[in-house]
Amino acid sequence: MQERLAKAHGTQCGFCTPGFVMSMYALLRNDPTPSWKTLIRNFQGNLCRCTGYRPIMDGFKTFTEDFQTCMRGQCPGGSGCCKGDCGASIPASSNHTPVAPSALSDADLSPFDPTQEPTFPAELQIKCETLNGSRKFTGRRLTWFRPANLAEAMKLKAEHPHAVFVSGFTKIALDMKTQTTPPTHLIAIGHVQDLASIEWTDAGVTVGASMTFNDFENLCRTAILKHSEHPSESKMRMFHALLETLQRYGSQQIRNVARLGGAIAFASSTSDIAPVLHVIGCSVTVFSTDGHRRILPIDESFYLETGKSILEHNELILSLHIPFSKKDQYMHTYKQARRRDCDIAAVTCGFKVEFDEGVIKNIILCYGGVAPSMVIAKETSKHLIGRRWDEDMLSVACECLNQELVVTWVDNQVGAMLEYKQRLITGLFFMFYMRVLNEVQTPVVQAPIQSARSAGKIERGLPKGSQVYEVVDSNQPADDPIGRPLVHMSALEHATGEALYCDDIPPLRGELFAGLVTSTRAHARVVSIDTQTALATSGVVCFVDHRDIPGKKYVGPVTDNEAVFAVDEVESHGHIIGCVVAESRETAREAAATVTVEYEDLPAIFTIEEAIANNSFYGESKIKTHGDVAAGFKAADAVLEGTLRMGGQQHFYLEPQSCICVPGEKQEMNVYISTQSNTNVQNWIAATLAIPANRIVCHQKRVGGAFGGKEVQCSYAAIPAAVAAYKTGKPVRLIHTREEDLSITGARLPMLANYKVGCNADGKIVALQCKIYLDAGRALSLSDFELWAVFLATDGCFRLPNLHIEGICCKTNLPSNTAFRGFGQPQGQMLINWILSAIAEKLELPYLQVIQSNLRRQGDVSTFNSLIESDGLHICIEECRQMSHYEHQLAAVNEFNKKNRFRKQGISLQPCIFGFPICFKSLNQAGALVHVYTDGSVLLAFGGCEIGQGLFTKMIQVASRALQVSVDKIHVSETSSDKVPNSTSTGGSMTSDHCGGAVLNACQILRERIDPFKERDPSGTWEDWVKAAYLDRVSLSTTGFFRPDGLEGYDFETHTGNPYNYHTFGAACSQVEIDCVTGDHVVLRTDIVMDVGKSLNPMIDIGQIEGAFVQGCGLLTLEELRYTADGFLSTRHAGNYKIPGIVDVPEEFNVALLRNSENPCAIYSSKGIGEPPLLLASTVFFAIKNAVRAAREQDGLSGSFQFDSPATVEKILLACPSTLLPSTAGNGAT
Predict the structure, then answer these.
(1) What is the pLDDT of residue 79?
(2) Of 273, 437, 546, 639, which is least packed with CB atoms within 10 Å of its CB?
(3) Domain FAD-binding PCMH-type: where (predicted)?
(4) How far apart, in Å, are the Cα atoms of 792 and each of 617, 1065, 1068?
């Protein structure tokens, strides 16, 4: 498994990789030849922020039966076998060679023998006799009981009335992290055999409450299969309804341990399981500590409110009874959430109808998520009984439902989605109505098959795709690695779990741990801090806050304007007030929770609109004017005005902010940190502690994801740990929890933009005026520079002859927002694309035609003096158009929309441009240090950090060519500030350019020193020449340095200079399908063409393209920051902040690198690639917008409409016409 994942290029930062490996291991233990669908479902609970999932699935699909069929030559694709990617569209070109990492031959793969099970570690094995008896585990604050049987469990409950029963422990474990008074006694009952029975009777089946959801699902499948062709098949319909629910229940990992009894007792308002159990007519048997049993139906009386049922504190659910269904009963369940898989429901529901000669005899409509507890629409049911299953009934049902169930309740986990939930109440019933139409085959009820299908849930197909790049010249030496798809040098370590991250460093002697105390107010004066209880806790050493800082209390990347430790005043929730230092991590966190802070609240600002109203800004507006805007508007054939809002995005790197500070002698300190900038951390710690920078050495081996979030925000771990280590004189470790990380560190800057644009009749822009607001949060950080980046991106791809653009950063009482992959360019590109879309709508022109009318050409100079050095934009668009079969797909989309009323498709093709390097001259430099040892091995060091982008691998490739030695002789150990000082932050997609130039420079110097010995002994080896040089006292170590030639930089005050040396170009086409009833969407296909010059490593670059694109899809369609009314971030963990999962990527995903591209401005003619592809995710957003427009036009709603980013399920549904249901449900359109 690990080898196949590595060879498929399925790792980048590697932090998530062991989790995927273990999920695959568990799957193969249970199913040695899984199907594609089983494989995909298996990874519902695994997240990756780097890869975009495609290479992970390519590695693991080699275990599937589908792939093995292909390998045996039985692929339905015949001679064009794609080894599991049957049907993928691979562009044909003599200049490309299609390469699919999934197409691994038998020679590439170690054979998989499912009979050869790896030895399970002895230290993890538990003897059977250990499991049979009762056990008790006592900790400092928790006692865990493991009773041997039910009688003992009930006895323990009687002795400890406040103890909590746990079975799967999937929910209570999460709650205990946030509860102020978590339970002190737990009674584990998941193993108790009395709760594991299965009993079949003529009335139904009774299952024990400790049955896992996975076992329950298998039971349902077995029962259905057994009765599939039996006359009693209809009595098994309840199992079909249960399976519909179980398919959407949690993840495979959760289903493996979560138990039925716990899920029922938990009483969640958004329970996936409760509605279906009610409509089926299930009941539970409960048992109390006094020996009484009672049977309780699962109905509205069972659930009182969120988290509370009618169960008494001394009662336990023993079993669940599931009655068989009747012949004329039809039942189905539905769940709609923000993300397709593994998400909390916005609305969940179960419906059952029973007919008597085509007339409704009984009907049950049950909903979750619309009130504090499950609700049943009884009044609506009364109105429907006696009616036929037709459109009149549907109309009455929708009207009654809207009157009976009015959503006013807000779920803190899901957020305020009142109107959306209200639409879903009738929309989900409509889907049930259409499905029953399709199932009921009587003369009275006829099923319009196509209508029913078009109103059903969108089913995602199996993934496929292609990766295409230009092969190296046949004359290139075999041992020259440049341009070859070398596997990431740490891939195997990632896959085996041997790769070390910051918190993997073993504890040091005397090491202490820091637990953060953060603000619970958005803006307040700190009146007092009471640490008495914390300091009295055993194991606590001290409390640290701003008063312990000997040097600067304010730091920053440009100006020192942010207090990491709040000084007298907190300016956002999560603002660090101090930290408790203790002998263990748990003690530090628990003691920190006891620190009480007295506040005096101050006025707070939470939105851009509030900042505008209160004139809350950082400095003055920034302005760029070009041409004569007033004259341009006068000459325009059409003038449009509008607004675009774009939300923020959490970085959600999987390794949280982490730091270990180890003090030494003479004020020395070694800092081990997860960061993008050792130099920033070094300087900030030195300034904070008032010691010279040469005493601080920052080390970093690899980072488990960063995306810009560890360039500045790493100070929130570094400075508290450093001050604590300075105060105590001992090593201090500070690792943020996920909740702390998301609450403290800020996000991508949200944007509000107002625009006015003038254009000609052909869509060409003649004048553009914009006012841009960015939400910087409580500290300016890098936001000023990001604002300029928005300006540059707005002006990037398109000719803007007359431009006035103005912008300002807003000061709000939210955490300081910061750099994120793309750094302002996604916002700028979205703005200009939105404007072009508005022009196309207004003039009724094809969007692609408007794009091409305004596109820059080779030789054009932007309003910021940036020369377009090639026609790469046009070439990428044309190749993408051909690769995606754009015209054919556009016609297919239009035809689909004519035939389907309740689903619509959209398609969009757009270019992107990204300038290099960073336009600030001083940042464009890099250093390297190269050692050659007498055995011929080479050690590289440089200032760039390995954050998953494959930097170390690429630098080894660069050194290999430059030194003409094989890659296995070259090693990179770490990035550290004592090896290469004054390094530029790793970001801006320029680190390979700069570090590559520095490594090349150093290697060329070394080669010049070694070459004379090669000339003397031409038949010798590299080792011979190195040894000879050493014996001749020639230095085999040197530094290298690089700065780009000809780069002037850009002065944003005088607007002079040249911001870029070259550009990376790209184009993408995306096709989507939306569900107009639920707001759900699927990306059917994406084709990307990127100009990366001569790629140093094409598969690493393709991995960056796919990962950036999927991350961009998260930004524009899924990820949403939600705050409470007082500014508290509610989306602060994986449970309610959803990044794209494995089923959120395009069904068909094709990536091609542009052929015959040169770039004389970067190392070996390559180009930067980490960020540009993220901009292309806007194709998905605009494809969704086009699909929504098709739905609106169908109902006569023409013209422009507001549709802000992100395009969540909520926004999609609310943008679709509300008249779709019920009055238009049967007007003949399907």
Answers:
(1) 43
(2) 639
(3) 137-327
(4) 21, 15, 21
Distance between CA 267 and CA 32 in Å, rounded?
A: 37
Helix (H) or strand (E) holding 754: strand 751-759
408: Cβ–Cβ under 8 A, 6 or more apart, which residues? 418
Residue 802 Cα distances to 628, 765, 792, 798, angstroms: 5, 9, 15, 12
Question: SS3 string of 412-454?
Answer: CCCECCHHHHHHHHHHHHHHHHHHHHHHCCCCCCCCCHHHHHH
Q: Is 513 helix (H, G, I), strand (E, B) or coil?
A: strand
Query: 897-925, pLDDT tens digit by residue?
Result: 999 999 999 999 999 999 999 888 889 99
Q: How far apart are CA 172 and CA 266, in angstroms?
A: 9
Highest mean pLDDT among 330-339, 765-774, 1124-1133: 765-774
| End-to-end CA separation in angstroms for the chain | 46
Instruction: Tell me the sheet residues that pair with 1068.
Output: 910, 1088
What region, left, alpha or beta, does residue 874 occupy, with left being phi > 0 and alpha being psi -120 to 50 degrees?
alpha
Looking at residue 601, its amino acid is D
In angstroms, the CA 1030 to CA 1091 distance is 43
Tens digits of per-residue pLDDT, 1016-1042? 999 999 999 999 999 999 999 999 999
Q: Comparing C-alpha atoms, which of 637, 862, 864, 866 is closest to residue 766?
A: 637
Per-residue tokens: 394: 């549907």
Compute CA distances 365 → 297, 382, 428, 432, whole Å: 16, 11, 10, 10
Contact 214, 256 (CB under 8 A): yes
| Pairing verdict, β 732-735 and 658-663 | antiparallel
Given a cut of 90, whether residue 456 has pLDDT beyond it is: no
Q: For tokens 């009762």, name the residue.
A: 134
d(CA 1059, CA 1163): 19
State pLDDT tens for residues 797-833.
999 999 999 999 999 999 999 999 999 999 999 999 9
Instruction: Give the whole-angstrom CA distance, residue 650 versus residue 739.
Output: 12
**Length reported for the chain:** 1230
How far apart, in whole angstroms, are the C-alpha atoms of residue 298 and residue 320? 10
Residues facing residue 144 across a β-bridge = 137, 186
Tell the residue number behind the tokens 């238009």, with chain if given: 1224
Residues marked as catalytic: 1171
Reduced to 3 states, what is the DSSP secondary structure of residue 544? strand
> By the 8 A CB rule, do 780 and 561 touch?
yes
Q: Has this prediction a pTM greater than 0.90?
A: yes
Element (H, E) at 528: strand 524-530
- The radius of gyration of the chain's CA atoms, rounded to the nearest angstrom, is 31
DSSP of 949-975, one letter per residue? Answer: S-HHHHHHHHHHHHHT--GGGEEE--E
Q: Which of these, 138, 153, 142, lies nearest to 181 by C-alpha position?
A: 142
Q: Could you give the C-alpha distances from 714 to 561, 604, 689, in angstroms and in order?
A: 16, 26, 17
Asked if omega into 917 is within 30° of 0 (cis), the reply is yes
Model confidence pLDDT, tens digit, residues 521-579: 999 999 999 999 999 999 999 999 999 999 999 999 988 989 999 999 999 999 999 99
C-alpha dist (Å) from residue 389 to 364, 386, 392, 499: 14, 10, 8, 61
Dihedral sign, Cα of residue 615, residue 616, residue 622, residue 625: negative
* Residue whose structure tokens are 């006094």: 290
The alpha helices in 641-705, defined as continuous H runs, are 678-689
